[in-house]
Amino acid sequence: MSNNKQHTPVMLPEVLQAMQPANGGIYVDGTFGAGGYSRALLESASCTVYAIDRDPNVAVTAEKLAKAFPGRFFWLMGNFSDMVDLLDKHGIKYVNGIVLDIGVSSMQIDNPDRGFSFRSNGPLDMRMSQSGESAYDIVNKASEEELADILYHYGEERKARQIARAIVNTRIEAPIESTQELAGIVRRIVRSGDGIDPSTRTFQALRIVVNDELEELTRALSAAEHLLTDGGRLVVVTFHSLEDRIVKQFLQSRSGETRGGSRHLPQIGATHKATAVHLPAFFLKKRKPVLPGSSEIRSNPRARSAKLRVAIRTRGKI
Question: DSSP labels for the chain?
């Protein structure tokens, strides 16, 4: 029971209200994690849930959920950007709803051995899939210019160049191996008066690059558009401005609400102008995101930066 309380998913009532799960429906939890959204969907209606996660550590949780909901829950190991192919292998062509909780899960943050958090000491890892290039590799091998670009573009860190220079100077003597060592380097340069740890943006930037998170999100949004049936719902919870900007621009473009186009999605905006007779792919009930309530923020500080956006699939062509 304590584990479930610890990993209560962010904005769960709002997600369920936006999704409106129905009996007989097929839903995708693209970011399974501790399984909070999947369980809530399964308990809300006699539906089927296909959960996706690239972290092999979620297998134990997934197996328990499969036993609790036999024939209604299936875990697919892989990236949520590959959801079309993953579901196709199970004979699923269309679904009624997709929920995505973007970012690192509580299970990963709370485990020091995964190297996601600056609050406890652990190896510089940050790999969700536990394979490929790690944060250690980037911190100790990337050039000063590359590090500065990563911290500035993906962490929106104003002192990116100073931090990059300090990292390079430190690793000359010995590799930077732990989360606490990296956090200490950043804290000597960045001062924060807003209660947020100075190393937050640096860790965010490294995590995003290690896991290719922004590209994954972009590909996943397009995949969701292909999978959702008419009236199907896309519900996305983001935790920082870079993620939310991608979701916002995609949904505006695919709902025909793009004004002046987006430099990130030029071909989509151009297509809608040229084919105005076609229905847009999504309908947006609200243009602004749904925000967490004050009581949730008090009980779960992780929710403070969360934004929920919901879109309804139309019969519009892709």
Answer: -HHHHHTPPTTHHHHHHHH---TT-EEEESS-TTSHHHHHHHHHSS-EEEEEES-GGGHHHHHHHHHHSTTTEEEEES-GGGHHHHHHTTT---EEEEEEE-S--HHHHT-GGG---SSS--BS---SSS-S--HHHHHHHS-HHHHHHHHHHHH--TTHHHHHHHHHHHHTTS---BHHHHHHHHHTT---SSSS-TTHHHHHHHHHHHTTHHHHHHHHHHHHHHHEEEEEEEEEEE-SHHHHHHHHHHHHHHTT--SS--TTSHHHHHHHHHTTTSPPSEE-S-SSPB---HHHHHH-GGGGG-EEEEEEE-S---
**pLDDT digits 0-9 by tens, 94-132:** 999 999 998 665 665 665 557 567 677 888 988 887 778
Q: Give pLDDT, residue 264.
A: 41
CA atoms 9, 14, 15, 21: torsion sign = positive
Please tell me the predicted confidence (pLDDT) of residue 221: 97
DSSP letter for 191, please: -
What's the predicted TM-score (pTM) here? 0.85
Spatial neighbors of 138 by CB under 8 A, at least 6 apart, are 147, 150, 206, 209, 210
